[in-house]
Task: structure prediction
Amino acid sequence: MSDTAIYEIGKEVYLIKSEEHDFHRNIYLKKFIAPDGTVKNMIFDPGTKLDLPNLLEALKKLTGGIQEVDFVFLSHQDPDVSANINMILTTAPRAVVLASLDTWRLVKMYGLPEKRFWGIENLKSETVKIKKTGHKITFIPALYAHFRGAMMVYDYESDVLFPGDFLGGLNTRGGSGIYATEESWKGISLFHQLYIPCNRAVQNAIGKIGMLPKIPEIVAPQHGDILKGKIIETFMDRLMQLDVGLDISSDESDRELIILALNKFLEIFKTQQNESFTRLMTELKKPGEFTTFFTISEDTILNLKISEQEAISFFWETTRKHIPQEILPLISALFVDTMEEFGIHIPHDIASQVKKYAVDEELFS
Ligand SMILES: [Fe+2]
Ligand SMILES: [Fe+2]
Result:
């Protein structure tokens, strides 16, 4: 087995990252170490069955083994977060689950004993001290971001916030490394558009983070890149303005027009280039490591799961990548014409590229 990638991202905070390129999971371990040497180990969102071998290996290296786990924080109950919980509680005799009551109501369906659960709402206050080490942590509700009972937690010693799925993202940065750059924004934006029900939930969660004594130095979400330093405020400012979930579907007429235009494009494309069309449809329907951005039945797009502009960009990128290069000018021209026919604005980042191919085609014709 290859060595599990472990990164120390803050004082005694370790990241165990899964290997997928499009969309991966981050599991974290925090070791609270008292001056007298007492150690309390907390793991955050311990991942899926697929992560278990890496998690076990990492825990062996960092704590001496899974049996040394004292606390398991669950930001919510999704299987990518909680699937290993039963196994951990069985192997770590001292371990207790820290989660909201809403999370517990669902996660206990794994057959977990009530006495191994500490409900966050039942604690004396949102800020608690770890017994025997004295470290302070604060729990922060992230109402509907993306689950009703979603929780975040902030560790004072390392200045790290663990926000669960909130502030997470798909991997659009590419390359190696673990820290977010400007290229990470697209993935964060898409992830929030898909999974956060409305912008009010985003505003509420960011407002709660703003009530901490300071903006954390590091944000360690369950998916995507680690945010460090100034980029945290930059991205939070943008998220405050971002339409997500139900906000996106509000302008139905625009949306329907785009769906019509994309289907018209596909229809003509099919009659002209049947083989390439079939390949493109396979790509558009493929969930890959994440999800599809369109609802498609047969060969027709029924709905968009992301904003109109993102959908056009994604649609064009997929088309461009999966058709033979020699027909690119022709198909570019068709795409531009069809969008123009429906009066649809092509996003700036792809407009110049598409038009360039289209012009080349005119020169050749
Ligand atoms: Fe989730
Ligand atoms: Fe998740």
User: Anything to note?
Assistant: The domain at 6-245 is CATH 3.60.15.10 (Metallo-beta-lactamase; Chain A). The chain has a mean pLDDT of 91. The first strand starts at residue 6 and ends at 10.
